[in-house]
Amino acid sequence: MGRGRSVRTATMEKVEDRLRIPFDLNFRRFSPMVKKIVGLVLLIWPLACAGAVEEESGSVLAPGGLRVEKVRVRLLPGGRDGAVYLDVINGSDGPDRLRLVESPAVEDIQTHESLDEGGVVRMLARPDGFEIPAGTKVELKEGGKHLMLLGITDPPQTGEKLLLKLHFDRAGVLEVQAPVQILGE
Ligand SMILES: [Cu+2]
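Above are the sequence and the copper (II) ion SMILES. Below is the predicted complex in structure-token form.
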């Protein structure tokens, strides 16, 4: 895949600059015991076989074994622009790709990657999305791959949820309710 075109608009630069400021993730970590219980419940829950299952907030499991975890939304003050970070664990038997993401509440969601080139951080568009090889975990995180949210029509507050529809080539469309944090709050 090519390097992608540079997308340094003023708005995006502002968003990127703000999102690189260290902030308290304040993200609930679930204990191994809780995860084990969730896993056991899913194993014996017939609905788990019927389709994608949303687990605890910000996580979803697809029938083929691809899992999305730790989905979190970070918005600039005002709540109109920001980024989404998440982990994808591909437990299926083949490669997949996070092709695109949409939300009824967001005008435009783009797949981006920030690269540090000798101290200069550049943000590149990744219009083909992100490949998720089989048996790997790909992290969308601060300073790396991420989803750029541009133009949220009804800005949420910290603690509210934002519905995201994650389109994977093989796993299909996974819906997840992602918790929102407004930076600085
Ligand atoms: Cu970006």
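The two ends are 38 Å apart (CA to CA).
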